[in-house]
Amino acid sequence: MWFKWLTAFVIILVIGMIVIEKDDATEPLQSLPILRSAHKIVMHEIKIGSDKATIIEALSITEQPDNLILLDTFNLSQSDGLRIAGIEAAYNMDSSLLSITGPAIIEMHDGRRADLDGLVWDRKSQKAYTGNPVVVKGIEGTIRADRADFQNNFTVIHFSGGVHAQISEDILYN
Q1: Which long-range contacts (CB under 8 A, 24 or more apart) does 115-120 make?
Q2: Mean of the per-residue pLDDT values for the chain?
Q3: Can you point out the beta strands (E) in 49-162?
Q4: In this structure, is residue 123 part of a structural domain?
Q5: pLDDT tens, position by position, 53-83
């Protein structure tokens, strides 16, 4: 009697092992590389041959395999006074292109502040643009437009589409 029970147990055990091995063999291997991520980071960047320093602070950062870095709740500030803050952005390390999605604030060297939604900044050419409405405020007044192009590291701004300006009276006489 015990021999029948032992034989039945061994047969069930062998069948179970075969089923488990088949399940292991059919599972696909992970095809995506492991991503690196960090939380509450501060990065410092200093260009060789230049005295300009950049500090990037972010709540979280994720590096993807195609040299794309995703930033969440970030603040980028340069030693020359430029500051860019936003909720979500992607930085392509190969092309030095920062793409901000969602609301962003740009505080420029001369004290002007731009409130916008979405921005693409080519750090190599020092040009940026937004195809969404933008409001730029400064001591001279306020300018609203449907789109804006920023050049020379945000020192020159070209507005287009539905441009409205409220400027101080003495700006025309300077």
Answers
A1: 116/148, 119/84, 119/86
A2: 85
A3: 53-64, 68-78, 83-92, 97-107, 113-122, 127-130, 134-138, 141-145, 147-151, 156-160
A4: yes
A5: 889 999 999 998 888 999 999 999 998 889 9
CATH number for the domain spanning 83: value is 2.60.450.10
Q: Taking CA 82 as the corner, what is the angle to CA 136 and CA 173, rounded to the nearest 5 degrees?
A: 50
**Residue 133 near residue 117, CB atoms below 8 Å:** yes
Question: Has residue 101 been placed in a domain?
Answer: yes
Q: Output the furthest CA–CA distance in the chain (Å, rounded).
A: 112
HSE-up of 154 (CA within 13 Å, CB side)?
Answer: 24
Three-point CA angle 148, 150, 156, nearest 5° = 115
**Dist. CA 169–CA 73, nearest whole Å:** 38
Considering the domain boundaries, does residue 102 fall inside one? yes
Model pTM? 0.74
Whether 67 is covered by a domain: the verdict is yes
Domain limits for position 127: 36-173
Q: How many domains does the chain have?
A: 1
Two tokens, residue 114: 């731009």
Which residue in the block uniquely carries the two structure tokens 């939604």?
Answer: 117
What integer pLDDT is reported at residue 52 of this predicted model? 82
H helix intervals, the chain: 2-26
Q: Are 142 and 165 in contact (CB under 8 A)?
A: yes
